[in-house]
User: What shape does this take?
Amino acid sequence: MRAPSRIFFVIGAPRCGTTAISNALRDHPGICFAVPKEPHYFSRLPKNWSAERLSADYLQIFFRHAGPEHVTYGEGSPSYIYSDEAIDTIERQFPQARYIVMVRNPMEMLPSYHQRLVYLLDETETDLVKAWRLQEARSRGEQIPKRCRNTHMLRYRDICSLADRIDTLIAKVGRERVKLVLFDDFSRDAIEVYRDTLRFLDLPDDGRNHLPKRNRTRVPRMVLLHLLMVQPRSELMRLLLARLRQYGRKSSLIAALLRTIRRRSATVAARPVVPPELWDECVEAFRPSVQRLSQHFGRDLSTWLERVPARAGMAKADLSMPAALAADD
Assistant: This one.
């Protein structure tokens, strides 16, 4: 398969609306979006990787459904924003690639991201305060959960300090090929942000006037089924799940089956918040990043760091994990 002349990457950040905007872009008739949405291909390259493998290993696997109607390819791997090597490789292979980065208040992103790691089984410490304070030990390779697929995922301060990564990205590719989106803007007017993103990608408006909300926070419920869905151990099972998800976009029967499995394996959780005893520590940790983000957006984002009264529906979520998931083995 020949490399596309146009391609874009929704490269982050996690828990900032990337799934929602990726799903919206996936449905545009001119876009061939990767299946699955997050290949994480360029952040997992083996040491012996060569450009000759791009077609067979990347294009033919994740974009095998491409057709003549597709004028651009796209994918949504949030891991790329944290990997200089991934961006460098993308730039060598696709020197005109465009990048979409979604940014969220780190005081909201942090608890949501922690809750997501618990759901994905990469984190076993369900108390955010304890997980935050384990960062130094984990940076030394200590107290790493057995099922954690990438120890960098547990560096909560680095993950939520997006200004550093945006500075690096812009230095590498230039400001004109980077679109920055505030999660708050997307939440307030998703259609306008979607249309503005299409303009950034030089694509025509497809006439939509509504985007569904997606990717609500979930916590495990049925242990074995949840393990199967989020961390299948065999390559055969991973391929089977990927194929089912692909067919689920065309078959209402398969889509209904996948929805049933998701409902049985996990349940929607309350929206999490930064605990009061951790608030001031996090504010000081994120202040430099928020100040630089304010400069990038030309907007004062300092209100993100102001303590606000707890709102209805924002109580601390119950992340208690079944023993089988919390176990080291």
Q: What stands out?
A: The longest strand covers residues 7-12.
